[in-house]
Amino acid sequence: MPEGHSVHRIARQFARHFVGHEVAASSPQGRFAAGAARIDRRTMIDSRAVGKQMFLEFDTGDFLRVHLGMYGAWDFAGEVALDATAASANGRMGQTNQRGTVVGAFEDSLSSIGAPRRTRLRMAEQESLRDDGAAVPDVFPPDPIGQVRVRLLTETVVADLRGPTACDVLEPLEVAAVIAKLGPDPLVDDLDEGEARFVATVRRKPTPIGLLLMDQSVVSGIGNVYRAELLFRARLNPHTPGRNLTDEQARGLWRDWVHLLRVGVDTGQMMTIEDLDPEAYARALASRDDRHWVYHRTGEPCRVCGTPIVMEIAAGRKLYWCPKDQA
């Protein structure tokens, strides 16, 4: 499932290419025809993410809300301006199966946008140039491929949505109600207020911290990868009840999430091992195996103590941790 950094990157692609433009909305699949009709030929005026949910606002006051869930993805095509972390990867980017080395990965990808060029870009948990650098057909817009729930189209760019968990058109009060149920997001909320909310919530809960970090009402945007890595970086046992954490431990988790989320948005990668030399950093960008402390490393030696990493099922999701360093 896409974690917070991916959804923020998608929202900013919409800000670059759709906000300020009249948008033709349709539902090639047919399942969202009524919703598409409400926003068809309206001007998009805002695009924002809160945790794992995205809200596209139109001049009617309506919002298109999208939660990608496990299988959802956006495909962009047309004159897409790729940022430094996407344009230079020469292929697939994201959580798995990246090819190539990212150039300029330390650049702020939100301001280092290249000139628009005709291309295709998939954005979900992983980002990829669909044509892998090959020429893109001159026909625009391209025909929908597969079960496209929503197609959003301007004169130069098209975005196709497939397989979302949630896709609906909401009024402002309905959007406010959805957001009110979400925990703080470091890229949306005031950092001090967000920290205070997070700490207060965690420290009154008997629930294990490994489950609290995945609860979107406690904190927005954290998924399986960031959960495992945050806990290892803090050397916290995932089974520790939230109320047993000290103030310092809870604040440390929030502040590390602030940091890692920014890194994820800037690089397009869930980069959780730091202070690497240039060669090791290039390897980490190119391979998940060199990017994380414990995630997806069942049975492999801990990078700190050598103890085999443990994987267990917690609330239906895989939890990775070191039984010695996080004892």
Describe this structure in words.
The chain is of the alpha+beta class. It folds into 2 domains: 4-177, Alpha-Beta Barrel (N-terminal domain of MutM-like DNA repair proteins); 184-321, Helicase, Ruva Protein, domain 3 (Orthogonal Bundle). 28% of the residues lie in helices and 23% in strands. The protein contains 9 helices and 13 strands. The protein has an 11-stranded antiparallel beta sheet with strand order 6-8-7-5-10-9-1-2-3-4-11.
Task: Report the major sheet.
Answer: 11 strands, antiparallel
State the domain count.
2
What do the pLDDT scores average to?
85
Strand proportion, as a percent range, falls in 15-25%
CATH topology of the largest domain: N-terminal domain of MutM-like DNA repair proteins
Shape: globular
Helix-residue proportion: 25-40%
Q: What is the total tally of β strands?
A: 13
User: What is the level-2 CATH architecture name of the largest domain?
Assistant: Alpha-Beta Barrel
Name of the top-level CATH class of the largest domain: Alpha Beta
The helix/strand order is: HEHEEEEHEEEEEEHHHHHHEE
Strand ordering within the main sheet = 6-8-7-5-10-9-1-2-3-4-11
Please count the helical segments: 9
